[in-house]
Automatic annotation (TrEMBL):
The protein's role, per its UniProt record: Catalytic subunit of a heterodimeric structure-specific endonuclease that resolves DNA secondary structures generated during DNA repair and recombination. Has endonuclease activity towards branched DNA substrates, introducing single-strand cuts in duplex DNA close to junctions with ss-DNA.
GO cellular component, one term: Slx1-Slx4 complex
A molecular-function term among this protein's GO annotations: crossover junction DNA endonuclease activity
Quaternary organization: Forms a heterodimer with a member of the SLX4 family.
Classification of source organism: Eukaryota, Metazoa, Spiralia, Lophotrochozoa, Mollusca
Name the UniProt record assigns to this protein: Structure-specific endonuclease subunit SLX1 homolog
Length: 285
């Protein structure tokens, strides 16, 4: 089953299937995985990379996605390509003789997912084809908020109208209360209780029936357990007590999840919901 994801930013790993170059790998960044793998296998004249041109076929086997923007994704790409130059990865052991290039790249990215600032992002580890999947090395499992997912993915652009309306107007601004009555979302911050000004950026609960709305800074402080950190990972909605991933709230603010279903937002299934909320994108298309 192909999953459709809005506002896609991903860093991928290619594996060469050409017997002459078999085992070679390539790391790249993309906002459109299907288009990118076609470019790599077609050649430089189609936009493919010089290092992959004429050495195909290549298989895109792994992609790390969920980055908040292209800058974050490109920085991850560079560090994964050059772990020996990254100050955050200097302690990662170099490739051993027993390791294949594929195994080494996997070990490096496992270390990256446990290293700040990437460890606090709402990333997904996606194996595009399950037969290539590798287990996590002992002691290098990712944080609990980073799910392992399988299968192909299709990127979906968020329209300008969605982006423009998301910062000020939310899907919960006017909603059904369950009795057929329309309810206006609160104009007061759910955390500080002060009135929300029109120009202020706010975040809302992902649960369609919840009318929580809060200043982005207020909600961040509410979610942060460690005062020395700046970026939250997850927290409880101040209104409905559902566990919310910070990255998903930001994605909603940018125009994603406009048709998120209530069924995936039940409080009693918080952990499973956190790991599967992105999959609801496919149902909303």
């Amino acid at each position: 089953m192909v999953q459709e994801i809005e506002d896609f930013y991903g860093v991928y790993l290619l594996l060469c299937l050409n017997p002459k170059f078999k085992g070679r790998t390539y790391i790249g960044y993309t906002v459109n995985p299907n288009r990118r793998i076609k470019q790599h296998n077609t050649g430089t004249h189609a936009g493919g990379a010089y290092r992959t041109s004429g050495k195909g076929p290549w298989e895109m086997v792994l992609i790390i996605h969920g980055f908040p923007n292209d800058v974050s994704g490109l920085r991850f790409e560079w560090a994964w390509q050059h772990p020996e130059k990254s100050r955050r990865l200097r302690d990662v052991p170099r490739k051993t003789r027993k390791e294949t290039a594929f195994q080494y790249r996997w070990r490096v990215v496992c270390n990256m997912l446990r290293t700040a600032p990437w460890s606090r992002l709402g990333l997904n580890v996606r194996w595009l084809k399950q037969e290539y999947r590798l287990d996590y090395p002992d002691g290098l499992e990712p944080p609990l908020h980073m799910p392992i997912v399988f299968g192909p993915v299709v990127s979906k652009k968020v329209t300008k109208s969605q982006k423009g309306s998301s910062a000020m107007i939310t899907p919960q601004a006017v909603s059904d209360d369950g009795d057929g009555l329309m309810v206006l979302a609160s104009e007061d911050c759910a955390v500080c209780s002060s009135h929300i000004q029109t120009e202020e950026t706010t975040l809302t609960c992902l649960r369609p029936s919840c009318h929580m709305r809060a200043h982005i800074v207020c909600l961040a402080k509410c979610f942060l357990e460690d005062v020395t950190q700046i970026l939250p990972v997850e927290g409880k909605c101040p209104r409905c007590d559902v566990t919310l991933l910070w990255s998903e709230l930001v994605r909603q603010c940018k125009g994603c999840y406009r048709n998120l279903s209530e069924s995936v937002m039940q409080p009693e299934n918080d952990r499973n919901r956190v790991q599967n909320v992105a999959e609801s994108d496919e149902d909303s298309s």
